Amino acid sequence: MKAALAHASWELRLTLRNGEQLLLTLIIPLVLLIAMCVTSFVPAAEGLSRVASAFPVVCTVSVIATCFTSLAIGTGFERRSGALTFLATTPLGRQGLVIGKVIATILLAALSIALVTVTAITLGWRPSPAAIWALPILIIAGIAFASWALFIASAFRAEAVLAIANALFLLLILLGGVIINSTSMPLGGLVALLPSAALANCLRETLGSGTAPGWPAIFTLFAWAIVGFALARSRFRWQ
Questions:
Q1: What is the CA radius of gyration of the chain?
Q2: Which positions ≥6 away from 205 have C-beta within 8 Å?
């Protein structure tokens, strides 16, 4: 575990020095939150202020961008460059690599969401007691998205990972129950089974409406996390 924590620290420092990664994980969520609050491009949910409607959506986008898209692309190109082959010669091991990357990614997502939260408070959002539910939900979601990112990054060539990660990012945001609530979509019951919709629905309740999240959505996230971590741990390839 010590090696995994050391690797997580190294991964986090490396990411914070990368301008493209910072743009995707820190700047874009802030710009999106402000844009959703000052424009009517995405209508506010009934009974909620514009910031209370936008904040859960932006948090979901931040988690997907950080824990899935950014991690998958970065790891895919690390495989192509041979960086992962080098790490394979260290005591880190496959499990240590997976755990280290997941921890570093969750910490980066936490930084992104902290900045978004400060901005939302500045724009008028106020937390309710139910907001405490958001912490375990975000951790479970971070593990789920990060695990699947590592699995995809090791299953395809770097160029394919780039295309797949970006395509899935757009599909999940636009059609996966994030921008539009799954309850308002055709086949909403199936869409609700996606990790993006489960996370967005939980955050809409805890951070938007101020109520406890529904257990079906929590179980959905937990299932994606368990399956994703098992696949990443057993199927991750260094080359």
A1: 17
A2: 130, 133, 211, 212, 213, 214
